[in-house]
Amino acid sequence: MSAIERRLRDSGFRAIAGTDEVGRGCLAGPVVAACVILDHDICFGVNDSKMVAADDRVGRCRTILRHARAVGVGVVEPHEIDRINILQASKLAMAVAVDNLLVRPDVLLLDAVTLEKLDMPQVPLIEGDKRSVSIAAASIVAKVYRDLLMESYHQRYPVYDFKRNRGYATEEHRAAVRLYGASPIHRRSFEGVDEPMLLFGRDEENGGPKR
Prior knowledge:
The chain has 211 residues and is an alpha/beta fold. It has helices at residues 3-10, 54-67, 78-84, 86-99, 128-131, 133-156, 162-165, 171-180, and strands at 16-22, 31-38, 68-76, 107-111, 122-125.
């Protein structure tokens, strides 16, 4: 997975960054992106976050943070997703992650997109999170960061079970939305979120509407 980075270094690039986002298909919560510049191509155990078991993900994230030359994170909240659409929000999160790096990249590796507002060389790669160690590292950092955010939201809105579903459209999550209505962190522009709820009022103690 480091062959692309090696070829870029052979071409004279030194600060090679990979970026990726998570949470694009969720009904609730922000979209989160990370951008990572690794000091070395090889980072043992790094793969696309979807291919890494949840129990291993945090440890691998710590390894990345320990060995990376620079890491940046970008977060775009649900109200902004509703305003500009999820594709533009995903691109914005990645651009913010790049801007939050302490090192300016020479070249940016991305998973099948380009960021039109960034003035730097960019290499979009189909299935980039499976082909580039830098993109894979970014996917892990973004996933761990977002999972921790959703766990904190679970404490505030427990009826939606964000700790388990992370905001994704599971059957149980959709049922909770139908029953309790949308929470403040739901994406109201997404199908099935802004439907009439079966119960009315808000039960602050249980994190949902009043019965």
